[in-house]
Amino acid sequence: VTDIRRTPNHQGAPPVVGDLASFPSHAALARSLTDAGGHGTLSTLTPDGHPYGSLVAFVAADDGTPYLLASELAEHSRNAHREARAGLFVAAADVPDDADRLARPRVTLLGGLAPFDASPDDRDRYLERHPQAQRYVDFPDFSWWRLHVARVRYVGGFGVMSWVDGHAFRAATADPVVNHADGILAHMNDDHADACLLYARHLAGAGDATAATAVGVDRHGFTLWAETPAGPQVARVAFGEPVDSARAVRAAAVDLVSRARQRAAADGA
Amino acid sequence: VTDIRRTPNHQGAPPVVGDLASFPSHAALARSLTDAGGHGTLSTLTPDGHPYGSLVAFVAADDGTPYLLASELAEHSRNAHREARAGLFVAAADVPDDADRLARPRVTLLGGLAPFDASPDDRDRYLERHPQAQRYVDFPDFSWWRLHVARVRYVGGFGVMSWVDGHAFRAATADPVVNHADGILAHMNDDHADACLLYARHLAGAGDATAATAVGVDRHGFTLWAETPAGPQVARVAFGEPVDSARAVRAAAVDLVSRARQRAAADGA
């Protein structure tokens, strides 16, 4: 599957048709990756000025601010005590083994890394996501650190990227669907290819499409890769209203089929 | 499985017994991760001095020097043109979903990142590892970059870590077994738990072990987690001679069983 999940904006990209306003914002997509928590690469600065990447297990606070538990003995802790400027790189988890990782979403959060006093809720949230940390959460040499996000670089895949301001990042909300896209897309393409073609032809402006593949899904709608006599097009169709969970996509997809059929009948197709 | 693959050196770690000299060097283990190629997090420096992590697909030259193909438009290329100091973070690939990533090996390579003229062999090696790069290898805005490694931080898991000098890194050779350890360890523990206990008792100095689990394997031998009446021990047993492939571990393991039985008989056990 060609993974064009967002508005492609690189040279040579196919035209994008349909409901362009319904593409999720990069701020929301960045929040989707961050709020899922998990493992990331923390970049800190060594005493001799090299950017130093290391593995961390993090979660995000309600406003998307990532925080983590680190040993005072770890290089990244020593580095951050000297120099707060840091970055956290997070890629989508659960990438299929055969996936082209460079075509998959990821995000880099830049800002200042500083120790903080984790509340009991912060601690519970962390241990729920990283239960193995129970073993060392009470060690005296472990401390809580959080990254105050100043700027965000979101990369959705080839040629799909932008900078997001820290305030916009904190104000956005994670998309409840996009982290579950793989399963939904596989289901649509394996079992409902006819629906995808209906969407492309009658709802997304690719009226002469001969085939369509779902390549993206989020709370606002589907992104389709449509084959047309004039070449491929990226075709976007919006749900009637945003869905609030991955589970709700099914009903929204069925509703889109009804709308597409009504439109087809009205168009005399 | 407790993942103690290397000499534990943190406080409170169990005693290590057996053939300690046979543990692989951290230089060789760093080369094993690097020479496998794959994806890593490149850390570069933004104009405002933040360390910036981004996804790259890399391979290693014969001396372990990592190199990669990058668009001139990418942030990391712009950053590296301004400031060569960079880092490449590489974690073991194909980690089981339920694994504790913080207990798994990873490496950070620090040095200077600079463009270079890739030879046809360099190019072939890269495209063999990353066939998807065929799509853009000839794009005019893509260039080859390599990281001249000045220092290496190897982290084998909790409390198992050291700095390795760039010269030692380049002089070391990758271990042909360690990247295949998961499958070998699962086989040993599932089907040959009796052999592991023989090793621990009669070859690795844990004579009163009541159970033993293989937790590490490399070209030089097995690392075992042995339960004894006095508490757990890490027990190391060396092969008769280093093996040259993962496949050769089987014969070496059988040979160790013979040696352990002979020793047991000689000891009157």
Describe, in plain words, how this protein is organized in 3D.
The structure is a homodimer of 269-residue chains. By secondary structure, the first copy, chain A, is an alpha+beta fold. In chain A, 27% of the residues lie in helices and 33% in strands. A six-stranded antiparallel beta barrel of chain A has the order 2-3-4-7-6-5. In chain A, strand 3 and strand 4 (66-71) form a beta hairpin. In chain A, 46% of the residues are buried.
Outline the fold blueprint:
Two copies of one chain form a homodimer.
Chain A: E1 16-18, H1 26-35, E2 38-45, E3 51-60, E4 66-71, H2 75-82, E5 85-91, E6 106-115, H3 120-129, E7 142-157, E8 160-165, H4 166-171, H5 181-191, H6 193-202, E9 211-218, E10 221-228, E11 231-238, H7 249-266
Parallel strand pairs in A: 1-11
Antiparallel strand pairs in A: 2-3, 2-5, 3-4, 4-7, 5-6, 6-7, 7-8, 9-10, 10-11
Concise structural overview:
The structure is a homodimer of 269-residue chains. In chain A, 27% of the residues lie in helices and 33% in strands.
Low-confidence spans of chain A: 1-10
* DSSP strand count of chain A: 11
Distance between the termini of chain A: 28 Å
Rg of chain A, rounded, reads 21 Å
Summed over residues and divided by their number, the pLDDT of chain A gives a mean of 92
Share of helical residues of chain A:
25-40%
Question: Largest beta sheet of chain A, briefly?
Answer: 6 strands, antiparallel, barrel
**Topology as H/E string of chain A?**
EHEEEHEEHEEHHHEEEH
Which structural class is indicated by helix and strand composition of chain A? alpha+beta
- Based on the structure, what is the oligomeric state of the protein chains? homodimer
Strand order across the biggest sheet of chain A? 2-3-4-7-6-5
Helix tally of chain A? 7
- Sheet-strand content of chain A, in percent, reads 25-35%
Q: Biggest interface, which chains?
A: A-B, 37 and 37 residues
Global geometry of chain A? elongated
